User: Fold this.
Amino acid sequence: MDRLETLRGKLDEVNLKLLELLNERAGIVREIGEWKEEKGMAKFDPIREREMLETLVKHNRGPFTDDQVKHLFKQIFNVSLGLQEAGRKKELLVSRKRRQEDTVVHAKHVAIGGPARTLIAGPCSVESYEQLRAVAAALKAVGVQVMRGGAFKPRTSPYDFQGLGVEGLQMLKEVADEFGLVTISEIVHPAHMELAERYIDMIQIGARNMQNFELLKAAGETRMPVVLKRGISATMEEFVLAAEYIVSRGNEQVVLIERGIRTYERWTRNTLDISVVPILKQETHLPVLVDVSHSTGRKDILVPCAKAALAAGADGIMVETHPDPQTALSDADQQIDLEQFRAFCDAVQQSGLLRK
Ligand code: PEP
Ligand code: MN
Assistant:
């Protein structure tokens, strides 16, 4: 019995020594990682890894077999590489670890994020002055300050309405100025950033373009607020890294929007991922909005979905509305008419969830 106790005592000692050495090793690995990061070198070096394993095997006196030694050390190497990756993630500019305070995005007199909660509404596409004026008046009447409307429409079919282009942006500007509203519209080409600066107040990067890296870089070069939509099947990590593209070019005015992801479900157009809201709020300091129209593709569940999003911590909601949805040139099935829009705003405003 005494012998067992002694051996166990020795084992405990060795465990602690091993722990100390492993942590010492991890510290060195981290330093190497930082150095490589600075020099822009790849973290994983397979040749170096093979050399280390060969040296270990050469010095192996047993009782572990050479294969067992290799297996054990490969585990250690992998965990260490993971440490370097975790370090890299921690350093993202959009990460909450880099900045504790919420980023507040400003577009003219409107703030998104921080204590504010913002409603954005408007038609899927800009179609005419009459249409836009009717929407603008409805927004104004319920105190919604940000009007959306697509002028460059990325449509699944090339035969569908592609948007009015520059003319649409001009209409947005004219009507927004008339009603004192702030505008947001999708930009699909890096060369169109100047147009955006001239005619609108916020740039939307659509779901289909979330990983259009040249577009992200161009948006990063502007100083306009950018509303970045989550890709149709983008993971949260891909979404966050897309935002990092913009912020790393010097534009910190970025808003993230969940707009539903593609799943097997057919009763909704996409699947609204509410979990992304608290996760993005936790992992990043950027404002997070939820687009209840594209995420559901339905008119009958907008209020509960908007409430759920706000309850989960969203900084605001985007919803599509059109004076005559039946005749809308895009997304006719999901746009609510102006009467339904008033009822939607009433319900959301009265829920108390627009106050933080
Ligand atoms: C839109 O907002 O009209 C749009 C095309 O959205 P998404 O990029 O989310 O599909
Ligand atoms: Mn739409």
